[in-house]
Amino acid sequence: MSEPGDARRPVPAVTLSTSSVYPGSCSDAFEAAARLGYDGVEVMVWTDPVSRDPVALRRLSAHYGVPVLSVHAPTLLLTQRVWGDPWTKLEKSVELAQDLGADVVVAHPPFRWQREYAAGFVAGVKEVVARTGTTVAVENMFPWRAGGREVLAYSPGWDVVDEDYDDVTLDVSHAATSGSDSRDLARRLAGRLRHVHLTDGNGSAKDEHLVPGRGRQPVAELLADLAAGGFTGHVVAEINTRRAKAPGAREKDLADTLAFARRHLGQA
User: What is the pTM of this model?
Assistant: First the structure.
């Protein structure tokens, strides 16, 4: 497996989020990435202690020959108790990325009830990037829906296009849930698009994270556009395999996602 910066590695790199093997472990993700031929791993920091242990992660990376190319900060509801307050979560995620040689940290916009954090978020992200030199790519989210009504859960908002973020992560499933077209969203983000979470969705109010090609988003066209435009960021498989009960079903989903990415990025 080639290392970050190795000219032999396909560009863009196609990597595997550790969340794609949930409820499996970080070790399971590294093993699957190595065996299936992914270019690297994105570590989702959450309740699994290994996901926030740089020594353990370096050992996994060395053992399987798979580099960690990005880190996802613990910004989900289930990780509210991981690493304390929101700014500490982001700072520790950047420290972890630097320790592992990863060049991107993915962060979600603040929840509306995190008022102080939200008020200084845009400027604070810029300060962290300027001070550390690590890219923080803020991810597009979606409106929550309850009883047929939209709930504004994020601040400054779920739509990253009009916010002053220098680097953005485009999540295809989130685009579907928000009623957006991921290909159009990528075009609107233009040079700010740094990172892609490769998945799919049907536009359900539920964030589906389907295998690409199994939903209604123009994922093949999005990848072709990225390849044609010289995109050099990471394309990260972030799919939901929790319902993969049959023997080999998760393996097939992960393999199909990688094959889809390679084919439509022109790397087959």
Answer: 0.93
